């Protein structure tokens, strides 16, 4: 039905629709306004990419609920093989934009991996990831974890519970392998953050070694999200950090245990963004703004009325053209709960956040946190001034475009004034909810880096 509706609206009645608008414009002022808005678009047929994760939901919802069409946009949404292919296709112009890792526009802009100017004017969600370990590793960790009065493990679980296991592997000369989805992914930085907070060194990058495994206690490598459970089951990796539904899939299959969510590592952390090339944005400013308007409305719908629409969202995402996992697997986290050890399901209403807490606003400080982690682990090889961090953040993150879209939605009565941080300077107040209790202030990135025992800072380099 999805494809039929799209084809019908674009091809079968495209000319008739425009003719009708022209005729109605003679008698209906509202239609005249709508026709004028459509005519101003530089491009109305668009192709967007995504990876099969539940946090691509704003794209699916904007399509399925007609929010793109409300803006005069006819959109095709395509799953991509992996994050590199997705980024390359945006750079090459095969895709007009995509669901991206928050670190991808930043990494591309500073030239880590592929060099390209990518921007974002929309943050797609907060939270949504977890770290899962195999059943065997969980059995070794469990004696090191405090238990509550109900006999269940006390959360959040620190990586100190994993450290004796990793130490044993090292003493026996065995590599302790873990998976993450991409070198500049949130998952890489969250996994590294959690490990380091527990005294486990996740390794460095250098100018000549981009494996990220220099001096590592745990060896992190890339595995595409949908392949995480099978790779864990095969014993190739002993744990991983990934988005949903691939942690809950491990629980359902009985092959692993999610031990900590990213909400517990960094409460309400920014996750994915919608990215476009800077060149595309410059050529298509009205189209870009229209896309952001549709995505804002989709995010609003996802969180409306205390997540009342989430069951419908899960039904959409379970379709094969989107995430394609079983309804129950996706619902396990999307509807406000999260299952850790089999049968240990707990309320976690903010595991997925799409709109509340100003989730969609592209904060400069969010960009700076990712840049600090790139510096901490050697992806940024040399010392940078605070001003450098601010300049890169402002080049890549574009709240000006976001607020222009939000202003139009406000004028149209589609959002409330209280929904947006109209007066912010782009920086969040210092954030304290990290698993290691270290405060992050995006205004002072180098001072933040100085707080860590494990990681590069100042003039540190890796040979």
UniProtKB/TrEMBL annotation:
Keywords: Cell inner membrane, Cell membrane, Membrane, Signal, Transport. It holds the Pfam family NMT1_2. Coiled coil: none annotated. InterPro entries: NrtA/CpmA_ABC-bd_dom. It is found in: Endomembrane system. Residues 1-34 form the signal peptide. CDD domains: PBP2_NrtA_CpmA_like. One of its GO terms (cellular component) is endomembrane system. Its main location: membrane. This is Periplasmic binding protein-like II. It comes from Cycloclasticus pugetii. The lineage of its organism: Bacteria, Pseudomonadati, Pseudomonadota, Gammaproteobacteria, Thiotrichales.
């Amino acid at each position: 039905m999805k494809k039929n509706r799209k084809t019908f609206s674009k091809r079968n009645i495209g000319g008739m629709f425009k003719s009708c608008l022209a005729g109605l414009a003679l008698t209906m002022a509202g239609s005249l306004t709508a026709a004028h808005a459509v005519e101003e678009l530089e491009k109305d047929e668009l192709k967007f990419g995504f990876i099969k994760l539940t946090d691509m939901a704003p794209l699916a919802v904007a399509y399925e609920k007609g929010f793109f069409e409300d803006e005069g946009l006819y959109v095709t949404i395509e799953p991509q093989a992996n994050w590199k292919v997705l980024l390359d296709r945006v750079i090459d112009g095969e895709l007009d934009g995509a669901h991206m890792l928050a670190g991808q526009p930043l990494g591309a802009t500073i030239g880590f991996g592929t060099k390209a100017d990518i921007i974002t004017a929309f943050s797609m969600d907060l939270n949504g990831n977890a770290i899962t370990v195999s059943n065997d590793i969980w059995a070794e960790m469990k004696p090191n974890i405090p238990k509550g009065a109900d006999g269940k493990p006390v959360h959040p679980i620190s990586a100190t519970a994993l450290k004796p296991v990793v130490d044993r592997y090292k003493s026996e000369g065995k590599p302790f392998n873990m998976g993450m989805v991409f070198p500049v992914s949130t998952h890489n930085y969250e996994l590294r953050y959690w490990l380091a907070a527990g005294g486990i060194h996740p390794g460095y990058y250098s100018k000549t070694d981009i494996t990220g495994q220099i001096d590592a206690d745990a060896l992190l490598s890339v595995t595409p999200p949908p392949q995480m459970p099978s790779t864990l089951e095969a014993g190739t990796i002993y744990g991983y950090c990934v988005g949903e539904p691939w942690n809950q899939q491990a629980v359902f299959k009985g092959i692993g245990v999610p031990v900590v969510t990213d909400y517990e590592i960094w409460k309400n952390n920014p996750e994915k963004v919608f990215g476009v090339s800077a060149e595309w944005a410059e050529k298509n400013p009205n189209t870009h703004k229209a896309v952001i308007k549709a995505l804002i409305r989709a995010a609003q719908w996802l969180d409306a009325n205390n997540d009342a629409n989430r069951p419908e969202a899960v039904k959409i995402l379970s379709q094969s053209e989107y995430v394609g996992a079983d309804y129950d697997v996706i619902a396990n986290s999307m509807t406000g709960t999260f299952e850790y050890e089999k049968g240990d399901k707990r309320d976690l209403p903010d595991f997925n956040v799409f709109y509340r807490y100003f989730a969609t606003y592209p904060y400069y400080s969010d960009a700076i946190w990712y840049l600090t982690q790139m510096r901490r682990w050697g992806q940024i090889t040399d010392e940078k001034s605070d001003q450098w961090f601010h300049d890169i953040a402002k080049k890549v993150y574009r709240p000006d475009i976001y607020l222009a879209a939000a202003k139009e939605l406000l004028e149209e009565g589609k959002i409330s004034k209280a929904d947006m941080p109209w007066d912010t300077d782009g920086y969040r107040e210092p954030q304290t909810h990290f698993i290691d209790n270290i405060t992050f202030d995006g205004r002072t990135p180098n001072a933040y880096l100085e707080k860590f025992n494990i990681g590069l800072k100042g003039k540190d380099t890796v040979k």
